[in-house]
């Protein structure tokens, strides 16, 4: 029995030592990557993870997604962010992050899907609602644009962008009274605002 206990203690000590050593190695890789990032040596920052990369590590995939984005390797960035999303599906952090390389790749359909995924987790997020509204607005889908602008506007009623874009969406939907009210609120926020004044001139 005593021998068994001794064996268990030795094994536990070995496992703890291995985990601690791995953590130190990973921590060193992260630390070095920050140093390289600070001097814009992004490829060097990426290579610090060569020996320690673990596909099941959320933090490492998230970090590599960011570093590949900085290095201009946007397709690779997307791949790492997708791995992070798969590992932590309830997190909005990697979903916000993946929008950066998608934007560089001009992959608006994936950006739309990503904002919708964020809103499933954070339904009243002002930024996600506003940016999704912009996507629909520039597609001239003013009905859908207004739906998301309205959420952003309700959360931040005196936010410049929310008021202005809601005003234009209402204008193109033929809601002239609503548009006029919002354009005038924009003037309160930004006197002599060119876009708001243009909108008001079209309504008169």
Helix content: over 70%
Major beta sheet summary: none
Distance between the termini: 93 Å
* Number of discrete domains: 2
Over the alpha carbons, how many angstroms does the gyration radius reach? 25 Å
Flag low-confidence runs: 2-19
Which structural class is indicated by helix and strand composition? mainly alpha
Arithmetic mean pLDDT:
91
- Spell out the CATH superfamily of the largest domain: Tetratricopeptide repeat domain
Named CATH architecture of the largest domain? Alpha Horseshoe
Overview of this protein structure:
There is one protein chain. The chain is mostly helical and 204 residues long. The chain folds into 2 domains: 25-122, Serine Threonine Protein Phosphatase 5, Tetratricopeptide repeat, CATH 1.25.40; 124-204, Tetratricopeptide repeat domain (Serine Threonine Protein Phosphatase 5, Tetratricopeptide repeat, Alpha Horseshoe), CATH 1.25.40. The chain is built from 11 helices and no strands. Helix 3 (58-70) packs antiparallel against helix 4 (74-87) and helix 10 (176-189) packs antiparallel against helix 11. The longest helix has 37 residues, at 2-38.
TL;DR of this structure?
This protein has helices at residues 2-38, 42-47, 58-70, 74-87, 93-104, 108-121, 126-138, 142-155, 160-172, 176-189, 194-203. With 204 residues, the chain is mostly helical.
Draw up the topology in text.
Layout: H1 2-38, H2 42-47, H3 58-70, H4 74-87, H5 93-104, H6 108-121, H7 126-138, H8 142-155, H9 160-172, H10 176-189, H11 194-203
Helix pairs in contact: 3-4, 3-5, 4-5, 5-6, 6-7, 7-8, 8-9, 9-10, 9-11, 10-11
């Amino acid at each position: 029995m005593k021998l068994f206990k001794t064996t268990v203690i030795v094994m536990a000590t070995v496992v703890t030592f291995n985990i601690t050593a791995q953590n130190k190695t990973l921590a060193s890789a992260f630390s070095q990557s920050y140093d390289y990032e600070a001097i814009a040596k992004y490829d060097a920052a990426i290579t610090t993870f060569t020996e320690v990369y673990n596909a099941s590590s959320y933090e490492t995939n998230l970090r590599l997604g960011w570093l590949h984005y900085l290095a201009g390797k946007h397709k690779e960035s997307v791949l790492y962010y997708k791995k992070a999303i798969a590992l932590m599906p309830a997190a909005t952090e990697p979903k916000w992050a993946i929008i950066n390389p998608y934007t560089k790749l001009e992959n608006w359909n994936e950006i739309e899907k990503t904002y919708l995924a964020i809103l499933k987790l954070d339904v009243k997020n002002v930024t996600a609602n506003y940016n999704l509204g912009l996507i629909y607005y520039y597609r001239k889908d003013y009905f859908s644009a207004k739906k998301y602008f309205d959420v952003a506007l309700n959360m931040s009623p005196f936010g410049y962008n929310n008021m202005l874009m809601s005003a234009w969406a209402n204008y193109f939907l033929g809601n002239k009274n609503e548009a006029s009210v919002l354009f005038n609120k924009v003037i309160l926020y930004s006197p002599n605002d060119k876009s708001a004044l243009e909108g008001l001139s079209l309504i008169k």
